[in-house]
Specification:
This is NmrA-like domain-containing protein. By secondary structure, the chain is of the alpha/beta class. It has twelve helices and twelve strands. The chain folds into two domains: about 170 residues, Rossmann fold; about 110 residues. The longest helix is centred in the C-terminal third of the chain and has 20 residues. The protein starts with 5 loop residues before the first strand and ends in a 7-residue tail after the last helix. It binds NADP nicotinamide-adenine-dinucleotide phosphate (NAP). NADP nicotinamide-adenine-dinucleotide phosphate (NAP) binds next to strand 7 and helix 6.
């Protein structure tokens, strides 16, 4: 297929959308358009063409996507079902490549795909396959990044380092792959720069393979003066069971869904969170090492405590 020049980004103001937008603009390879919701108050750099589209109206989205070669979606979890209309509109507008809002676990693995948290993402993959079969000029790429590395540490998600008793899942020894937000932005640029090599398939990327125990060791190294107590051990099979019970009672809450995410990231090898192969080289990713992780934690842990020491409120 021909080169991709015009790229529309949906969800550009989000946690992931912001670094993806930066990477697309910084690459200098694309004309970047942002699609935002009518209710969105987000602002964007002057070099970016901003269009407003109602994601619940196919006509509105088709009009906004006219002339675009590719659509990258980084919409948040609440908006994942809205991608249904986005895909239909992209096909109707003649878009050549669609990257849905994936950026996490590898849901080509049936056990992982079966976790309820991934239902919307699995459904969109199915829709993309059908759309591409019906309209072969419409293609897609599914980006698996593993856990967000910097975001996951900042939000105490990969390790709750702010506690004195960190939580370790399944003993904390399972290795999982993780990628920083900037590297994901770089990978999106890489996919759009290599449309033939990335056509209609999953791509896997990672900065590092690491375990919670390793993260805890790094956290202890960064802040040895902190009073670290024995970790709290949590079994991800229990978490999954408890989330299933809540879901069966109609309780759909973030903690319930997070139980499934912890199972997918920290659970046994069959969930595939330790990526054995990657597309790093094709997409231009160099990877990170433990020193990089230490630098992220150092900034978070020491930055945060010194701000708190001054009695100020920590702002992320
Ligand atoms: N692997 C991991 O560890 C990990 C962690 C977090 C997230 N993720 C994944 O990364 C992707 C992006 O997540 P994120 O956390 O970056 O998203 P986010 O910050 O919650 O939201 C991204 C954007 O979605 C847009 N949006 C459109 N319709 C919306 C609606 N109805 N409600 C709320 N927002 C709406 C908004 O953009 P506008 O205001 O411009 O319209 C918003 O800024 C998702 O697929 C998520 O599952 C992965």
């Amino acid at each position: 297929m021909g080169a991709i020049k015009n790229v529309a980004l949906v969800g550009a103001s989000g946690s992931l959308g912001t670094p993806v937008l930066n990477a697309l603009v910084k690459s200098g390879s694309f004309n970047v358009t942002v699609l935002k919701r009518p209710s969105s108050t987000a602002t964007f750099p002057a070099s970016v063409d901003v269009r407003t589209a109602d994601l619940s109206s196919k006509d509105s989205v088709v009009a906004a996507l006219k002339g675009q070669d590719a659509v990258v979606s980084t919409v948040g979890i609440e908006a994942l079902p809205a991608q249904d209309i986005l895909v239909e509109a992209a096909v109707a507008a003649g878009v050549k490549r669609f990257l849905p809002s994936d950026f996490g676990s590898n849901i080509s693995i049936p056990k992982t795909a079966a976790l309820p948290i991934f239902k919307s993402k699995v459904a969109i993959h199915e829709k993309l396959r059908e759309a591409s079969a019906a309209t072969p000029t419409f293609t897609y790429t599914l980006v698996c990044s593993g856990a967000f590395l910097d975001w996951g540490l900042e939000h105490n998600f990969l390790l709750n380092w702010e506690e004195t008793k960190p939580k370790l899942f399944d003993g904390g020894k399972n290795i999982f792959s993780a990628t920083s937000l900037d590297s994901i932005g770089q990978a999106v640029v890489g996919v759009l720069s290599h449309p033939d090599e990335t056509k209609n398939r999953f791509v896997q990327i990672k900065d590092i393979d690491i375990s919670q125990s390793q993260l805890l060791d790094i956290a202890k190294k960064v802040d040895p003066a902190k009073e670290w107590h024995d970790p709290i051990h949590i079994d991800t099979a229990d978490l999954e069971r408890s989330s299933n019970e809540s879901l069966a009672k109609g309780q759909i809450s973030m903690p319930v869904m997070v139980g499934y995410i912890f199972r997918a990231i920290f659970g046994p090898a069959e969930y595939g969170s330790h990526f054995q192969t990657t597309d790093n080289e094709l997409l231009g990713l160099g990877g990170k090492d433990e020193a990089d992780v230490e630098a992220i934690l150092r900034k978070l842990m020491l930055g945060r405590s010194s701000v708190e020491a001054q009695g100020e409120k920590w702002l992320t």
